[in-house]
Amino acid sequence: MHIAILADAESWYFRELRRAAEGRGHQCVRGDFAAIVGAVVQNQPLLALGAEHTGPVDRVVVRSMPPGSLEQVILRMDVLARLEAAGIPVVNPPKALECAIDKYLTTARLAAAGLPVPDTVCCQTAEQALEWFHRLDEDVVVKPLFGSEGRGIVRVSDPDMAWRVFTALDRIDAAIYLQRFIDHGGCDYRLLVLGDCVLGAMRRRSEGDFRTNVARQGVGEPHTPTDAERELALRAAQIVGAPFAGVDLLYDRDGAATVIEVNAVPGWKAFARVNQMDVAAEFIQFLEQM
Known about the structure:
It is a single chain. This protein starts with a strand and ends with a helix. By secondary structure, it is of the alpha+beta class. It contains nine helices and 16 strands.
């Protein structure tokens, strides 16, 4: 196979995937998502990745989602969609990326399918956000609509601070995304889904910070997922349309599970270490079967 991997130049994940792919006789080329060119030559879609590669590919793997203008982001999704329509597997598919990157859309779809999610509001003005802050018992988590690894997330439980946060977001024309805070005792669970199976899970805990992301100094520990957790993770990934996904679950003080996030470009460095698993090899074998 010729595998195109859209990843940052220094990406550990690209190096891991290339190692696993070349070990099984495949060829890998890295491309910068922000520099891809969609082309149609002799009625065939091509993926141009700059000087490194221009031509047909057999598989496309998305490992980064850099910012861009609305037109640029639409173009990138269009290029992936045309490759997919031509029969070239893209992991994750553009529709899954569009859904998972948008926290509001993901939460709304999960809720519509009956999965447990936090009470969530996404609005556009500071006044609206403050009204919902009060209705959510004045204890909320404010998140960027687009973002990952816990960056830009803040817990707000003071009305004056809430107004300052909401006003700052309003001034930059940001969508204001609020979720009712769930007391999870400082830990949550990341399950890694690949196809129709759950590769495993990791318990993440943090001392003194409600954010448990390992990228935010959280600690990863082995965890054997329950059947119920596996079912939640598989359903969440399926609803988003992501064959490869990191699904985050947490439990409240009463033991009720909630789906917090579905990540369609999931990291697995800490997960692989905790579970002593070669995730890149599992992933390449999955690509072979597509």
